[in-house]
Amino acid sequence: MDATPTPVSEDALTTRILPRPRDEALEARALAEGLTPLQARVLAGRLSGHAGELAPLVSPSLRHLAHPERLKDARPAAERIAQAVVEGDHIGILTDYDVDGITSHVVIRRTLNELFGVPEDRLHSLIGHRIHDGYGISLPLVERTLKLSPRPSLVITADCGSSDEPRIARLKAAGIDVVVSDHHALPVEGPPASAFATVNPTRDDCDYPDPTIAGCMVAWLTMSLARSVLIEWGVLAAATPKLSPWLSYVALGTVADCVSLGGSAANRAVVTQGLALINRMEAACWRTMAERLGADSVPFDAETLAFQMGPRINARSRLDDPYAALHFMLAADDATAARHLETLDQDNQSRKAIEADMAEQARALARPQLADDAPALVVYLEDGHPGVQGIVASRLVQAFGRPTLVLTPAAQAGMLTGSGRSIEALHLRDALQRTFELAPEALPRFGGHRGAAGVGVPVESLEAFRAAFLQAVSEQLGDTELFPKVFTDGELAPAQLSLATLDELEALGPYGREFDPPLFEGEFLVESLRPVGAEGNHLMMELSAGPVSTRAIWFRALTPGEVPAFGVGDRLHCAYKLNRNRWRGRESLQLMVEHAAAVR
Asked: Would the pLDDT of 148 be above 60?
């Protein structure tokens, strides 16, 4: 019997442009509340089933934030932090190494130092090295903490800790209280028993109305409550400034961590307020980034945070140690910030080169799995860099329309580490929980969200893990048809290809995860095209629809050296965004093409 897998059909790999499903009842509500037909259409494609008020989402405001007291354990956590401040204790700040962790770190450190008066020499920054230490409260971080002299009496975590009971128990046994602030899903056994307090909106016993807030927001709320406690105790004056200025960091962490900007009034409010603060350009980190990106990049929007600032901060922690990112965010002057930003920028360029090589290898390894019609892809890159796994997984999801896990060797001998990205139809963290139930020895460590997750897998258990994971995915997806897809908000009339339409759409911002930027489709005549970019892999085009001709850019349209499959005079079916192109103080409309195919 021939065991050669059948070639994967081109149809299964062809990206399809599909209309985004719309909630007609919500569309009618939006129109009744005074939104334009286009705005109502966009909302109806993103807030399906949302029964609450639209106003908090359409007009984000901090008044919609729930009080921190509604977070389970927030009061004892705040009181323990206040006690450490009053007693002059040394305090460890232990956070993850990504943007959410770094921004959480800044919020906690600046609050303790600048608002609560804790001297710098009593604050200890504990951020793990992704490759050498691993994620969360790792054993190397515990050892580093225990070697501090004097040793902290309190460790505050942010964006990690919920799944780290063994390491927390070790710190507790050494006389160190651990206050966990986190937003990741908790293990089935619940909050870590050895933690002094666990502030996490995803707890089953937590009354906080929004479990989708980022780790930096949990940290901000916890520290805000600690300020209130210190005022209640008479330690701080009632006029002590609030933490509102730190919402600039919360906005960055919220956008970069890809938490929901859809039905979350809290996330939409903090990003809106945070962007307003950022665009005052009062901190050196924002000013130097604006200078690096050019005057036409200002004002920053959520996409600036997601695609310019976030990757630079993440790149440092992906490839090396993350303290340069922390120093950049905390820089007191432009020269210091610029020096650290240069380091981040160089790492980001290195990350792009590594990512390109790994993505090419990963696509080749995915092909046999696609031929077997696997419902998910599990790719092991023996020489891969662990810091770029998640980005490569995202590329494969985009190319093949399947949930993907990319694994590489871990620093710990005999272990693999991996990052996964999912599709809309699959809750990735739930799938990993089911995988653990099927093969616990093959998945000793995992965590994450609906759309992204991380795993630790013993080398000898890779195939057992793969089998269990594919079973878990199959159970959840059922008969869902899998193929790469692009969902759009329908067509625009030629007269709507204008900056006025873009203004109308931007009024609904901020956009991000679960509230994707508006994407439209339509047929255009190619008036001109030319490859651009250092490797010639982007396409600059002039596209016309009726009497309207518009400049368009399609990033990563080609592999280096590839010739476009269409030419001048051809008609293209495009999925595109409207974009504001700024050049020397002048603005014009530009189309950002996400996908295109010649109309035959």
From this structure: yes
